Amino acid sequence: MPGMLYLCATPIGNLEDMTFRAIRILKEADLIAAEDTRNSIKLLNHYDITTPMTSYHEYNKIAKGKSLVERMAAGETIALISDAGMPGISDPGEDLVKMCQEAGISVTVVPGACAAVAALTLSGLPTGRFVFEAFLPPDKKKRRLILESLVSEPRTLVIYEAPHRLLRTLRELNDQIGDRSLAVCRELTKKHETVFTTTLAEAVAYYEEHEPRGECVLVIAGKSYDELRQEAINEWVEMTILEHMAYYLQQGSEKKEAMKQVARDRGISKRDVYRELLNS
Question: Measuring CA to CA, which of 34, 131, 215, 273 is 20 to 30 A from 83?
Answer without folding.
Answer: 131
